[in-house]
């Protein structure tokens, strides 16, 4: 096994997002917003454990995260991972607890 850091773009919305399991090493506003004019995106870097599956490296496990604005309700059991300043907003990244068995996932 080995570890690598990968960048993921997430849309700021009221939805859960699934990303590879691992340590969040950086969370920031979307760097290309001046080109794409998208202001509802952020970027997160995750240190991920990889295992080789034939010729493709795959991350081990997934985690569900959600972005919350200051003052928004945060679900019980959610774990704060990072916060970032994006324009005039501060976004907070939380790992969500695993849903009960049989519940719809993101």
In short:
The chain is mainly β. The protein has one helix spanning 33-36, and strands at 2-11, 17-20, 23-29, 41-53, 56-59, 62-69, 79-86, 89-95. 4% of the residues lie in helices and 58% in strands.
Count of discrete alpha- or pi-helical segments spanning 4 or more residues: 1
Question: Shape from CA axes?
Answer: globular
Structural Rg: 15 Å
Query: Terminal Cα separation, in Å?
Result: 28 Å
As a percent range, the share of helical residues equals under 10%
Q: Main β-sheet: number of strands, strand sense, barrel status?
A: 4 strands, antiparallel
Structural class: mainly beta
User: Stretches where pLDDT falls below 50 for ≥5 residues?
Assistant: none
Strand content bin: over 45%
Using DSSP, what is the number of strands? 8
- Written as H for each helix and E for each strand, in order along the chain, the element string is EEEHEEEEE
Give average pLDDT, whole number: 85
Please give a structural write-up.
- By secondary structure, the protein is mainly beta.
- Helices cover 4% and strands 58% of the residues.
- The chain contains 1 helix and 8 strands.
- It has one helix spanning 33-36; strands at 2-11, 17-20, 23-29, 41-53, 56-59, 62-69, 79-86, 89-95.
- The strands form 2 sheets. Strands 1, 3, 4 and 5 form a 4-stranded antiparallel sheet that branches.
- The radius of gyration is 15 Å and the shape is globular.
- The two termini are 28 Å apart.
- The relative contact order is 0.27.
- The model has no long low-confidence stretch (mean pLDDT 85).
